[in-house]
Please model this.
Amino acid sequence: MVIFTTTDYWRYRTTFPVKQIWKDIQQEYKLEKEKKRKETHQYHDKIFKEILDNKKEFINFINRYTDYPQEQKSIKENEIEKYNRKFVTANFTTKESDIIYKIKGKDIFFILEQQSKIDYDMAKRMTEYCVELIRNVVKGKQRIKIYPLIIPIVFYTGKRRWDAPKSLSGIQERYQGFEPLDYPKYNLVDNNDFSKEELMKEDSAISKAMLFEKLKTKEEMKEVLEMLFQKKLTKEESKCLNLMFEYSNDVRKKLSEEEIETYKEKIRKEGEERKMTVFEEYIIDLIDKRNEAQEEAKRAKEEARKEARKEARKQAKKEAEKVIKEMIKKQLSDEIIMDTTKISKKDLQKLKEEV
Model:
């Protein structure tokens, strides 16, 4: 039997790189740990990116969760379009934002970055994104009078409140009264600003993804899921739950595979029921449209009658004025004309000036 003795140890210890092997093992462990961490965040971020890649969900997010002026009308889904999120920078590298939309027919852009961790370089990053996007949009254009409007948004879904600076202006060096450049601020949507009750009431996928970020225990998650199934899931909410079950490590830590499969089956059954509901809604919508068309036709007829009466009154007035002018030409007295035609003295005087 071959054995490794203490003598062997002392013989080989100076030539055998034990320390280096140990360092290699530690480095490999760190790399594997970092890889898993990145994969976890990639899966986590994929949920929000896939949801917000839907125009309807993005519009709902802008209108509901940002500081979009309430006095303005809400942005409509048909008013925006997706924009290429990849663009070449001035130094020929490629930048890629999470989500970029633009207003149709205008150089107005929304850049949205989703963060699950606080990034204290975000002010710098968003400034770079805005500058590079403008450069990309105006490239090749001559005599630019109006530059694009960029609306930068950071959507944060972490547990701690966001405390990173929103602009480079506030963190620049100062020197003898010289004012720092007025760098733009980014808009912040912090999931911590919304309660679970608010998010539960919203019938959208993004609200449910935000809601699940707030659930801390398995019991809390199961309670929320039961409440969602009781109120009947919307198509968007079903999609969100399927994404959560597929990609959320947090959900998989709290729920067993059997429990997840049970919830998936419930979603499938609700989807089948929803198909019939959609068909019923389609029929009801057709009936409503027919009724609306009938009401519109009725209103159109009434308007036509009003217009006809208005035209008849106008024509009658012209005929009356013609008769009165003939009476004026025959030099009948004002009293006789007014008594016969019931015209006012003021209107009679006007007609006399026209004769």
Q: What stands out?
A: The chain has twelve helices and seven strands.
